Amino acid sequence: MDQSPLLNDFSGEHWQLIDSDGDYRPISSMNMNELWDVFWIETVKLWEIGGPIAFNIVCQYGLYAITVAFCGHLGPTELSAVTLAQTVIGTFIFGFMIGMGSALETLCGQAFGAGQVHMLGVYTQRSMIILLLSTFLLLPIYLFATPILKFLGQDHDIAVVAGKFAMLTIPELYSLSVNIPTSKFLQAQSKVGVLAWIGFVALVLHAILLWLFIYVFNWGLTGAAISFNLVGWVNALAQFAYVVFWCKDGWKGWSWSAFNEIWAFVRLSIESAVMLCLETWYMMSIILLTGHLKDAVTAVGALSICINVDGWEAMFFIGVNAAISVRVSNELGLGRARATKCSVVVTVFQSLLIGILCMIVVLALRSHLAILYTDSEVLKRSVSELAWFLGVTMLLNSVQPVISGVAVGGGWQGLVAYINLGSYYIFGIPLGYLLGYVANFGVMGLWGGMIGGLALQTLLLSIVLYRIDWNKEVEQTTERMRIWGGQDLETEKKLQIPNFTTA
């Protein structure tokens, strides 16, 4: 088995932790000092990858969040409308697109771990093709956003403004077909520093443009949409340029091989999309149900502020999700079952600690959470009342994305999709409806039901994670690389030639 650079960070005193096959020795045979060494090694590996990825994704989320913040100061209707457009329409679209792109996360990570670096460019091109076709299928949702929101029972004035804003952001949709595949390409190789820098520059640029277009030029929501589109494409093209000009090992030029096994790739992409969409659409459904309550503007506004605060933590953990996905897929590609398991355990433990810290901070600052989003005292009080629900949600959201990242890294997205469907839509939403409408607890009841579904999902995923046979996962990864790589791995190693034809 090819020993990738992932093993190079073991200093001399740590080699006693590793068997002759390059994997960790069984944990049962380690003493406390050795266990601490494993914990520290895996921590360093995780955050070397996860830190920059998390920072990049937080910056990307910042594009959405500061758009809501700037527009929220235009008035309560604008706040609710932009939140509705971003949370319902934007989340629906982004969830589907990032889900379709997550198949690339599985395949690129496993190919890199197996030493098939040349296949990363082919997989990336294949994903670009699929995501570009997906944008045309999703376009009607933008075009008919207003009637869709009205059909879902949203307030007329809010739906009209939200629909106009959604249509103005159509160009950003197409940037995702480049942005998502190139980011997965770089993540698989742990080339994540550049993602962090690009994300930071894009966030700063967006803040400057929002201030310029909204407050200097007085373009209002139109100015916010123009900035959103421009920055989305700047981000995507910067990542693409780096892939083409600075990643010669993985990107060998455009290839007809991108069309090989494309239907199998589509199937895995759809499984990934369903898994992630069932998660992201869950929050969207709570917003929609809240829109039917009395005083919908205040209820939606307060909940949207809480969701935006929760979104900062959620985006951070999506970064951790991506990092553990890279670690799992790389280690499976290397055939290292015990190292995969150790990485998962360390990541779940640290994520839980971070989640507890986030909950404490939110509860301590509950009276001040809404200041960045609104000047309304009514909304500030409503957000403060919801802070307990926000804290519990943030605690649960610290573990769930990590387990989902393990699923993506291992390629078992289909099972997680069924768990999400049952936990969220068969249990969580009906429970929220009963508490919110039948028991008349309003937005607190709706959110309480959502927390119930999230807790059930986390419990079921934890059971699945505990029961995984990592040796079997290694065997399945080897077979996937043999089939999807286009030829037998042993033959490819002997020939040492790229498995593609340049167009």
Question: Key features?
Answer:
503 residues; 17 helices; 0% strand; globular; disordered N terminus; antiporter activity; transmembrane; xenobiotic transmembrane transporter activity; transmembrane transporter activity; MATE_fam
Compact overview of the structure:
Belongs to the multi antimicrobial extrusion (MATE) (TC 2.A.66.1) family. The chain has 503 residues and is mainly α.
Tell me what portion of residues adopts beta-strand conformation: under 5%
Helicity level: over 70%
Number of domains: 2
Characterize the main sheet: none
Give me the secondary-structure category: mainly alpha
> How many β-strand stretches?
0
Mean pLDDT: 84
Oligomer: single chain
Radius of gyration: 23 Å
Distance between the ends: 31 Å
Order of helices and strands: HHHHHHHHHHHHHHHHH
Stretches where pLDDT is under 50 for at least 5 consecutive residues are 1-14, 486-503
Q: What coarse outline follows from CA principal-axis ratios?
A: globular
Tally of individual helices: 17
Protein model, in words:
By secondary structure, the protein is mainly alpha-helical. It has two domains: 48-260, no CATH class; 264-485, no CATH class. It is built from 17 helices and no strands. Helix 2 runs antiparallel to helix 3 (119-143). The two termini are 31 Å apart. The relative contact order is 0.13.
